[in-house]
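Let's study a protein:

===
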Amino acid sequence: MAEAGAPILAAEQVSLRFGGVRALTDVSFQVNRGEVFSIIGPNGAGKTSMVNCISGRYRPTEGAIRFDGADITRVPTRRRAGLGIGRTFQNLALFGHMSVLDNIMVGRHHLLRRGFLPGMIYWLGGAQDEEIAHRREVEEIIDFLEIQHIRKAPAGTLPYGLRKRVELARAVALKPRLILLDEPMAGMNLEEKEDMARYILDLNEEWGMTVLMIEHDMGVVMDISQRVMVLDFGRKIAEGTPEAVLADPHVRRAYLGEADEVVRDIDESMPV
């Protein structure tokens, strides 16, 4: 375990190549415990590639990923979930034919008892108790995300905004200490975005989850993030408080564009 006060996540000079294409180049940053940290940048900047390196879907070509002080660069995805790293996906990864309840239960698979002897005890006497405990945890998540009314509905039949909420519920069911959110607001209307932002803040403040988020809605990013990192063509070009990052001329050129009306629209979306 890392020392108290140490960052929960650290990327150290991470580079990622696919053949001759560089997705990431020497990217380093840290995420502090208990904060909401956002990664922004234009399409193709390397944001999802970075999250995939953290979750274990990709292995960096160079550099290291550390979680709680331990090098997890070569740790498989499944084991990272067991360590306390959960995630959602930009493209929804729900089981459409399964109910909302069953989709969320899938998120708790790694918490089931393992091994021969524990398994014997489980099946001889503990199965029902554990099932009840898991159901209780899932029902708490369902209540928190206000999806009681769709708990038995097949996930594939739901409107997009509700499916995004179910995806978040499944990631939360993992009981992660670090949750990776890949564009949680994408495709949502204003009301849905406001609800999702509230859920993320509550997960952070009340449930104690550290949040690393990729998001294109700059108003949301600036409202709920403590710190922001900007990627452009796979390189880090800025990092700091939302206000400092927004004021950085490199960020305005790379992410917002040089057009005055684009900058003005973003400025007007910011709280006074």
